[in-house]
User: Which sequence fits this backbone?
């Protein structure tokens, strides 16, 4: 078969975007967790929910690192710097292509062929919740850092009072941590136990363990019915990125001349953005650059642009 | 805010980010982060024995 025929065949047999994205996400999932294969961790903090409690991690979660740094108290220069640089250059694309928890959310959403379309007013109200969560995290971690700097004795008492919340007010309940760390650790713990003692040990587990499991179950349930519900409404890391991503150099450009306002892009968007309403660059803070809108457009009215 | 203004703000934010990265390199934050990534944080285990 000649080269031209191969290229023509590949162009014709264009794989669906969701499959391409799953392959990329799966590749990153393996890459970010290859410490289990003996690869050494690298000093890199990415805007993805790659829990610092994971044994298999190669890089760390920016938000988790910021909380840990503030509890010491030290300036989280690398974490904040990388977050800003990545958000300004690539927007929230790491949510769609790299984040391991986003990958899990997408896999759950794949199981439901009839997802719920949340109404616009409800959607826009719920989307504000993640900014509230981000604010609470920074209030707790920031007040702890300031008290440790200016009044060390009070700060230490505050840190003691916060308990497991001190090193991470969000990490203590993060469902990514529950899924990637707490559950495997619990399974490993019970696996190695003598039979008969499980009931006793289950009763001895702290309330936070059960709270974490309930939150995780709620997140999975929501992800089944509403695509990317966690990323849209709750994820504080996504909220942090969204603050900067509206200024991102990467963007999707809509050509009003080609667009016939069929609404296919709006229906394809997992973040419920009305792509067809934008003029020129689609610079929405919620856009995760999954490219579903570009793929759904028959008129080629949307294209990726950088810068 | 129009497209041009957003690009100006974006460039300014990028500059701030690069300055923070420069400071991180200067103050040895990269080594500290390297140690941080190597650690296994117990906070997420929620008191599992």
Assistant:
């Amino acid at each position: 078969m000649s080269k031209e025929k191969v290229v023509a065949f590949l162009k014709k047999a264009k794989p669906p975007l969701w499959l391409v994205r799953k392959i990329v996400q799966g590749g990153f999932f393996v890459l970010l967790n290859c410490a289990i294969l003996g690869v050494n961790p690298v000093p890199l903090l990415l805007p993805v929910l790659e829990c610092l409690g994971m044994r298999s991690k190669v890089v760390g979660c920016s938000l988790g690192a910021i909380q840990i740094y503030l509890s010491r108290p030290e300036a989280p220069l690398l974490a904040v710097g990388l977050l800003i640089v990545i958000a300004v250059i690539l927007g929230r694309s790491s949510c769609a292509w790299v984040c391991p928890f986003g990958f899990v959310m997408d896999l759950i959403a794949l199981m439901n062929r009839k997802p719920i379309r949340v109404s616009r007013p409800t959607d826009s109200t719920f989307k504000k919740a993640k900014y509230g969560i981000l604010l609470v995290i920074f209030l707790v971690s920031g007040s702890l850092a300031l008290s440790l700097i200016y009044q060390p004795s009070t700060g230490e008492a505050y840190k003691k009072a916060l308990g497991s919340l001190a090193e991470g007010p969000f990490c203590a309940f993060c469902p990514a941590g529950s899924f990637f760390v707490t559950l495997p650790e619990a399974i490993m713990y019970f696996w190695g136990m003598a039979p008969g003692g499980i009931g006793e040990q289950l009763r001895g587990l702290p309330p936070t363990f059960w709270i974490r499991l309930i939150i995780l179950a709620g997140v999975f349930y929501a992800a089944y019915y509403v695509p990317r519900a966690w990323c849209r409404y709750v994820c504080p890391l996504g909220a942090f990125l969204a603050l900067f991503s509206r200024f991102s150099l990467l963007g999707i450009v809509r050509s009003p001349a080609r667009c016939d306002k069929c609404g296919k892009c709006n229906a394809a968007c997992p973040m419920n953005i009305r792509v067809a309403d934008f003029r020129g660059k689609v610079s929405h803070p919620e856009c995760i650059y999954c490219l579903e809108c570009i793929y759904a457009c028959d008129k080629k009215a949307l294209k990726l642009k950088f810068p | 805010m129009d497209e041009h203004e957003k690009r100006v703000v974006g460039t300014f934010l990028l500059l701030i980010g690069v300055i923070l990265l420069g400071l991180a390199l200067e103050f040895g934050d990269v080594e500290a982060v390297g140690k941080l990534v190597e650690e296994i944080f117990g906070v997420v285990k929620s008191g599992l024995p």
About this structure: Chain B touches chain A at residues 3, 6-7, 9-10, 13-14, 16-21, 23-24, 27, 29-34, 36-49 (CB under 8 Å). Chain B has a mean pLDDT of 81.
